[in-house]
Amino acid sequence: MADIIQLLPDHVANQIAAGEVVQRPASVVKELLENSIDAGANSIKLIVKEAGKTLIQIIDNGKGMTPTDARLSFERHATSKIRSAEDLFSLNTKGFRGEALASIAAIAHVELKTKQDQDELGTLIEIEGSTIRSQEMVVTPSGTSLSVKNLFFNIPARRNFLKSNNVELRHIVDEFHRVALAHPDIIFAMYHNGSESFNLPESNYRQRIVNIFGGKTNEKLVPVEEETEVLKISGFVGKPEFSKRTKTEQFFFVNNRFIKSAYLNHAINSAFEGLLKEGSHPSYFLNLTVDPKTIDINIHPTKTEIKFDDEHTLYAILRSSVKHSLGQFNISPVLDFDRDNNLDTPYDYKSKNSLTPTVEVDRSFNPFQEEKIGAKSGGFSAPYKKESANQWESLYVGLESKGTRTEQTFSEVEFESEPKNASLFSEEKEIETTQTTYQLHNKYIISTIKSGMMILDQNRAHQRVLYEGFLKHLTVKEAVSQQLLFPLNLEFSSTEMEPILQLKVDLEHTGFVFSSFTDSSIEITGVPVNVPESEVSIILEQLISDVEQEVPDSNFSATDLLAKSMSKSLAIKTGQSLTRFEQEHLVNSLFACKEPSVSPTNRVTFITMSVDDFDKKFM
After folding, report:
1. Runs of H (alpha helix) within 58-204
2. Helix axes 558-570, 536-550, angle to 10 degrees
3. Superfamily for 435-619?
4. Which is more confidently placed, 268 or 355?
5. What is the pLDDT of residues 56-106, one digit of tens each?
6. Is 330 exposed, middle or buried, given 0-12, 13-18 or 19+ CB atoms closer than 10 A?
7. How many percent of the chain have pLDDT more than 90?
8. Topology of domain 10-200, CATH
9. What is the Cα–Cα distance from 161 to 165, expressed in whole angstroms?
10. In the CATH scheme, what is the code of domain 213-328?
């Protein structure tokens, strides 16, 4: 029998490795940014066109490479970071596998320009699909410039799996944020389609967070500092009242490397227990410094997941540190007794003797005398005069004693009747009640029907009613707005502004009126009818959350998404008490909808139980 196992060609092996390393343009951005940091650069520029599908270029002022190193950098498993297997457990660099450039070169057109400071000329290498097209000497600044063009040009199937430009750009921005937050001492700049998206100067960690997520972020941050033999923690957590519906502001960095850890995230959520609203997530920007020998980074191709030797200890330290910071800055409630600071002894009186107050009593004071001038007590005097008991007849002056007046007065007196106890069994003469709906546990509405009974979920039913109403307004484009007395200013980060700008026209069709837009804020002068001003920020946050979670591509309906998001925000919540009129109105409105049986998210809105079902229960 012939042998069937054979070695794969290098270009095929590189494409397979690219499938692990390069999932989308954001993966290329991450690898190239980390290479620039490992090269010692203190200024990095990222240039992107068409969300990275056409061009991704990284320009840095690092130490550059020699012509030989530049050629070897595109070979598989060629790296300057490690020499032996033991080096994997003492890593202080971002990359170490030597797969990134080889994988990227296998699926794109790559152009590399690099030069070291001591050299007069640099090196230019052009590669197409793992094939080196040219290598020559060129004039170029010190450092490295690497351009990745036409990503997945030789793998059309992979290119078809890419999402819309808005979605892919959002992933690139996320990777840019992760690298920029981990290194506040490096200057970063990002350009998309020729316009500047970010320009981050060298700063401290707090200022870097503010530069990325907006000026209002500064007042939301609570510092966290802790240092033990096992772990050093530094960074910030967000105040509970500024929690978000998305997890976009959750960052863990271990030894300046961004990681994802559901276990450590649970520690943060545990520290915030009882402080967050349902469905909200805390914000945190935490740097964890541990011994490199106690972690294993080499367990995931993208290196975003690592393994700790002692996770339980890290969990306990992280949870207690965050909880301590929240209590230290009076964010979380602490066990303490109310004390008035005004009762504290001033420092000036600390060494003085206390004086016992004296009380003077006039023992000759008699209130039953005709007239008496009160004795002096406490430095003031008070006159006192007692009316004579012989003048009691004056109390009845002005009262008429005529019998007719007395009879007339008493005839107008109404006596309170005793409350009537309702009979267990109503008499036939009593008027029958007309109530047909009842509210159960402020969650369900029970209504009688001919065949038996209907149980309706008030939240889902109201979502359906609002959803079809918003769809009608968005389609007809004739929504009514109510003007605000004072404009409403809302602050958002640049990434959060994107979905709002994308849906701006549809929001205006529902009744919103925007007076101005900036990079990090919007001003609203009008809102849809029946939408309270306090709910506007909640609606927009819910909209941003829905866009993030559904990750809509070019095929999604912005109108449908907006209607779903607004109906979810404004619908009657579970636990809200409704009057009898409101209950009946909700039932009638639901069955006036085109699809009353399901909510906008395709969940059942009501169930029915017939009389036969009840009869079976009593058998």
Report:
1. 67-72, 100-105, 156-160, 165-182
2. 130
3. MutL, C-terminal domain, regulatory subdomain (3.30.1370.100)
4. 268
5. 999 999 888 988 888 888 887 776 666 566 555 566 666 655 678 888 888
6. exposed
7. 24
8. Heat Shock Protein 90 (3.30.565)
9. 12
10. 3.30.230.10
